[in-house]
Specification:
Elements lengths: L2 H4 L5 H5 L3 E3 L1 E6 L10 E8 L9 E2 L3 E4 L14 E4 L19 E7 L6 E6 L5 E4 L10 E3 L5 E4 L3 E5 L8 E2 L3 E3 L1 H4 L2 E5 L9 E5 L1 E5 L5 E6 L6 E6 L4 E5 L5 E4 L4 E14 L15 E11 L5 E2 L12 E3 L5 E6 L3 E5 L7 E3 L7 E8 L19 E7 L1
Parallel strand pairs: 2-12
Antiparallel strand pairs: 1-10, 2-6, 3-4, 3-5, 3-7, 7-8, 9-11, 13-19, 14-17, 15-16, 16-28, 17-27, 18-19, 18-26, 19-20, 21-22, 22-23, 22-29, 24-27, 25-26, 29-30
Length: 386
Amino acid sequence: MPRFLARIPVLGAIAAMAVLIGCSFGVVDDPAGNAIPGAFVSYRVANLSGTTTGPVSLGSTSWTFAWSPGDPGSGGVNGIFYLNPWGTLNAGDTRTTFTGAGWTRIFSTKVGYDSRFIYHNRQFTSCGIAQNQGPYSAGPYPYSDTGASIDGLCAFDAITLRPSNTNYTKDPDMIVDARTLRDNARATGASCEGSGNTCLRVSVGTANVGEGDLWVVGNSNVNANKQRRFFRNGGFSETALPNAVFLFHPSHGHIHLQNWTNLRLRQFASNCNTEATATNCPVVGSPGQKISFCLTDLATFDTAYTPNQGYGCTFDSVTGAISQGIGSGHEDIYSRGLPGQVIGTDGLAPGTYWLEVEVNPANVNGQRSVIESDYSNNITRVQVTL
């Protein structure tokens, strides 16, 4: 049993009801798995609607604290927090809502520990939540899909905070900016670049929402590519990237990191009509080739982050030396007019489809091009009409 689930109390009355423990809940702990009671946890929904890029707009803050044994109703569990977005307020509760579905930025902090931001996509998790539970009392809150319930959010978050007096590696974390995917257009003929007679051209933005910068250094002449990984104290190490392949792209005139994003369409039907259930329906059309990016800072995604430096894309044609990257809180964007931003659509009927893009995808052996702190948030989906 995972260490965090082992700490969730199963009360006799609740177990007898044959319902699950939770609602939206989670645990805050340190890297060794020790609970951190009293940590502040807040959630803000990132507005990734529309097609306007730049700094993401964030909704109002919903918050709670990780419980300690002295808190009423906590069941003596350190570091656990429970939230019910649909419940009525109990004495001491100060907020009326938790968070909506979609991309959510989590912030957690505690004196003596370094604060942390995490991005998760709440479209991928939903369940029925009982309406008669308080949203910010200690819980635990049962939920079920029967009775007085509402189809809402149900998610678990494991948040690790590191002591401020320690040194550690700060890795990047890549997501796909949904706003850029809505900048798409149908095309035909030569504009489809050999993918068929008809196609969908798509813009793609990849944002680094991790604690550390993404910086890749290497050489196009030899397989000696490395990722520079920064420490909290400002130093860095270099880790070999055996699956990172750089190739010269003649249409763009510079070196690209291969296997950076995958573009595909999925059928839209009654059993896959939400982002959470889209994988129930098959991939259709001709998936986009594994588009390579010349990684660089083109826009600020979230101003709360502080990158080590600004990043560009450099290539020495004489020595083969390569340096490129995306700073923490920044974003790289490829517009739909550039070569390779295409999905073949021959034979597809007019209608609604899921446009699905994955950044830094795993290869057939489950290996990825670069190292991230979290691979669970690498896929983004939006609806498109053909």
